[in-house]
């Protein structure tokens, strides 16, 4: 008799649990409302980097698997037919998160309501061109695009400049889009960051996913400084510093740096085209970590507006180690810088000051 009562009570409890679960699911179905789509502008949209990037955005790799997007694709007039072809391919991809695609050669139409702007477009470096030549060619492009973002984008629009010279192009954009918060304008050094992670993983014969906290300081240029002094490796039972694991310490200050600096040249020589897939992936990584946050205990490299951290002149777009949370980045503070690193960082600061002064002389 007692056993029967126990069975009955257990049955009642199970029924109650089941009914509660159904009620919760029913209520949750009303709360689980699809997010509003974010409008993502991509300039230089007929190029190879954009072609590799679009599927990543449309699949949710950049903004999350539950975030719908509308793509605004901008390029110059001669690329109009290419844009139409890329749009057709995106539609044929049947991406559930892709809620719309606008292709245009009109910068004002492209910038309307934009939440995220990825600036891939710019005047390409020709053989024999100096950085000053490249800056002067890009000023007009970035002035026009910045003015359109200023007038037509969302007030909290987040901007990533990829086209080179990325740091200085970002400064020009900031000059002509003063209402966009300075912390919302960034430049890409994540490709160099990812290349540095790969160099360390190959040297140590570990998976690249087990390496973290390398730093790209300063400028995306041939003088860039990849710093592994604070990098860590997951060895399965905890973490060890790269400096502990690398048998040839001199390698970190010589071959490691030059391998990262010259990686783009190696790819061009092999592929006969500049790196597009890895650049697109790095762009996706930059925006994902910025919007969705960096993993705990991990930092990444971003070109951001200097606040004077590490003695770098305020007002430059300079690459620092940052952590991100809820759409905001913060520069990692208190890292020890050795003499070798200080010299490299100061040289890059000087390089960026020279680029800034030249750009502003052209502006005015």
TrEMBL record:
It comes from the Eukaryota. It catalyses: (S)-malate + NAD(+) = oxaloacetate + NADH + H(+). One of its GO terms (biological process) is malate metabolic process. GO terms for molecular function: L-malate dehydrogenase (NAD+) activity. Pfam families: Ldh_1_C, Ldh_1_N. NAD(+) binds at residues 75, 138, 162-164. Residues 40-185 form the Lactate/malate dehydrogenase N-terminal domain. Residues 189-357 form the Lactate/malate dehydrogenase C-terminal domain. InterPro entries: L-lactate/malate_DH, Lactate/malate_DH_C, Lactate/malate_DH_N, Lactate_DH/Glyco_Ohase_4_C, Malate_DH_AS, Malate_DH_NAD-dep_euk, Malate_DH_type2, NAD(P)-bd_dom_sf. The keyword Kinase does not apply. Keywords: NAD, Oxidoreductase, Tricarboxylic acid cycle. The active site is at 220 (proton acceptor). Its EC number is 1.1.1.37. Belongs to the LDH/MDH superfamily. MDH type 2 family. This is Malate dehydrogenase. It comes from Lactuca saligna (Willowleaf lettuce).
């Amino acid at each position: 008799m007692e056993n029967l009562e126990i069975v009955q009570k257990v049955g009642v409890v199970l029924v109650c649990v089941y009914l509660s679960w159904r009620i919760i699911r029913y209520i949750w179905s009303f709360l689980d409302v699809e997010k509003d789509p974010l409008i993502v502008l991509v300039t230089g949209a007929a190029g190879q980097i954009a072609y590799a990037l679009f599927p990543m955005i449309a699949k949710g790799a950049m903004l999350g698997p539950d975030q719908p997007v509308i793509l605004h694709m901008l390029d110059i007039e001669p690329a109009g037919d290419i844009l139409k072809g890329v749009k057709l391919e995106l539609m044929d991809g049947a991406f559930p998160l892709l809620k719309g695609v606008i292709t245009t050669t009109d910068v004002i139409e492209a910038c309307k309501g934009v939440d995220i702007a990825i600036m891939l477009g710019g005047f390409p470096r020709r053989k024999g061109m100096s950085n000053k030549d490249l800056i002067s060619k890009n000023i007009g492009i970035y002035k026009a695009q910045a003015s359109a973002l200023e007038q037509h984008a969302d007030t909290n629009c987040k901007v990533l400049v990829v086209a080179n010279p990325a740091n200085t192009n970002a400064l020009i954009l900031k000059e002509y889009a003063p209402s966009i918060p300075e912390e919302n304008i960034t430049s890409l050094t994540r490709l160099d960051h990812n290349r540095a992670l790969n160099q360390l993983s190959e040297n140590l014969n570990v998976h690249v996913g087990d390496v973290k906290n390398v730093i790209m300081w300063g400028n995306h240029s041939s003088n860039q400084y990849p710093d592994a002094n604070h990098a860590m490796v997951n060895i399965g039972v905890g973490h060890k510093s790269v400096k502990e694991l690398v048998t040839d310490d001199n390698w970190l200050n010589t071959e490691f740096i030059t391998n990262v600096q010259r990686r783009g040249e190696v790819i061009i020589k092999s592929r006969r085209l500049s790196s597009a897939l890895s650049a697109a992936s790095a762009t996706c990584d930059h925006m994902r970590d910025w919007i969705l946050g960096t993993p705990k205990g991990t930092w990444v490299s971003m070109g951001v507006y200097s606040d004077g951290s590490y003695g770098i002149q305020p007002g430059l777009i300079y690459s620092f180690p940052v952590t991100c949370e809820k759409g905001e980045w913060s520069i990692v503070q208190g890292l020890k810088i050795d003499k070798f690193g200080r010299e490299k960082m100061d040289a890059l600061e000087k390089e960026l000051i020279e680029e800034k002064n030249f750009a502003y002389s052209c502006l005015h």
